Amino acid sequence: MNKKILIIGGVAGGATTAARLRRLDEFSEIILVEKGEFISFANCGLPYHIGGIIEDRDSLIVESVDNMTSKFNIDIRVFSEVTEIDPEAKNVTVKNLITNETYKETYDKIVISTGSLPVKPRIPGIEEAKNLFTLRNIPDMDNIIEFINTEKPRNAIVIGGGFIGIEMMENLVHLGMSVTLIEMAPQVMGMFDSEMSEMIHQIITDQGVQLILNDGVSEFKQQGNEIVLKSGAVVKADLIIFAIGVRPDNALAKTANLDLTDKGAIKVDNHMKTSNPDIYAIGDVVEVMHSVSNESMMAALAGPANRQGRIAANNICGIEDIYTGTLATSVAKVFNQVVGSTGLSEKHLKRLGYEFDSIYIHPNSHASYYPGYSPVSLKVLYNPNTEEIYGAQAIGSDGVDKRIDVLSMAIYSKTKVTDLKNIDFAYAPPFSSAKDPINMVGYVAENKIKGISTSINVKQFVEILDERTYILDIREHKELTPLFDNRIKESKHIPLSELRNRLNELPRNQKIYVYCQLGTRGYLAERILKQHGFDAVNIEGGYKSFLYQKK
Ligand code: FAD
């Protein structure tokens, strides 16, 4: 039977739903209502057009209203806001934002894809700040570009170190501005563990950005030209990008009395159906299940919104489809580096009380004899008993997205951590090594799980470290600075090449914590020591991981 399906919100989730619905059902009436001017635009590209990296503004519009109408025979109404849903009468109120007229529209099924709104708390002076912008859509982007072109700001302050803040920071630096990034937490990008985020901090400050952590805004003064921080510090600002997070745009859901979570997101089942059987909801406005922890969470990401749109359309058309959950897999460019993560972090696992172990490695992105290789710092978390992979984080200039995607796939398909050694990867010197970093994770996990190697991660090491800890640095002489200040304090130094001949210098009644620069030679030293009867433990990721943990 032909239906009348109303989609509210016409961008990531909404446009996908509309297209899928039409492909499945040529005859139903499909109405797409969008309060803005554009449908199907690339929010993710907005920071890069501001920075001039994406030059052509039109390329951000993935599908125009005319194209979508003719291709899919959809009734698209832009500049139209749905202001109320009446589930009893099965109609919605639509306001034409150009004429200010309102009218009712009936429906058989609704899909809500209204997205999220930037969080903007009532900080004193925020409304008066003339140079303060949030970034969600094309008009926001246009406003920022116009301000930059007319006011020529030199001093930009980005408030919030999440994805949008980080991307804006980079693009403003690209435009030649002096940029300060202010983040209230002790680290940027909360999905990373502290020692990984220290690497991100280094990337940021290396580019001349002033990074202020553990501090938030208490007041905007002089129409935003002065920001007073909670610490009392005052920073000057020509331009402010305010990006402290998003919240679900749930105003409509409230009018329909839909069940909401405590964070205000719409509750949905795994068919993307809300508490009302004729209303579906998708994208940033809903909470979904985390695939590892089964916790309900917001995953404000484009991939989940698109997949959920397809699932809602399938279910509306009688093709049963379920959303299996999210790993919140994400990647971002931070200047010349790439940072990516999937699944749960160590701090999240600790909060949940999960038993876990971790692996840190810093292999090269591809064979070191082929030009252009660079290290990938990779952390993988897993259950040492069941070998279930819980999560992964990676940082490097090349090959990060590939490794994070493989690990996301491994978590999804319940591949055991030791099975990673068995996977055939495409290899030629410009792309990888015969032992891909993902294979290396499998090797290290096998060594740990079978007791061939005993290792400790830097977080745990720092916790147990005291003046009695016996630490052995096995790096070669040429790796140490003349002042010996690039070492873990008080460590004994015996280069690996001399180790077998100097075993008599080492204690037999004490644990020996061994480290090299990246963790690989530390493992070799640990194996040598173990086979000579010493109680040796390798410090995972070596001095590089220690350095970032310590900061
Ligand atoms: P949206 O795509 O935001 O669409 C919601 C639409 O609903 C809006 O156009 C809004 O006008 C409309 N609407 C709201 N209320 C009504 C109403 N009452 N009536 C009619 N229309 C209404 N994700 C990634 O995975 N990777 C990235 O790199 C990335 N970068 C991003 C960069 C920026 C600057 C931004 C803002 C987001 C980024 N995201 C990224 C997030 C991603 O864009 C969102 O997760 C995704 O767009 C959510 O899709 P959605 O359909 O839920 O909402």
Topology:
Elements: E1 4-8, H1 12-24, E2 29-33, H2 46-50, H3 65-72, E3 75-77, E4 80-86, E5 91-96, E6 102-106, E7 109-112, E8 116-118, E9 132-133, H4 138-151, E10 155-159, H5 163-174, E11 178-182, H6 194-206, E12 210-212, E13 217-221, E14 226-229, E15 234-236, E16 239-242, E17 246-248, H7 251-255, E18 266-267, E19 279-281, E20 286-289, E21 296-297, H8 302-316, E22 330-334, E23 337-343, H9 346-352, E24 357-361, E25 376-382, E26 389-396, H10 400-412, H11 437-449, E27 455-456, H12 458-464, E28 470-473, E29 492-493, H13 496-499, E30 512-515, H14 520-531, E31 536-539, H15 542-550
Parallel strand pairs: 1-2, 1-7, 2-3, 7-19, 9-16, 10-11, 10-16, 11-12, 18-20, 27-31, 28-29, 28-30, 30-31
Antiparallel strand pairs: 4-5, 5-6, 8-17, 13-14, 14-15, 20-21, 22-23, 23-26, 24-25, 25-26
The chain binds flavin-adenine dinucleotide (FAD).
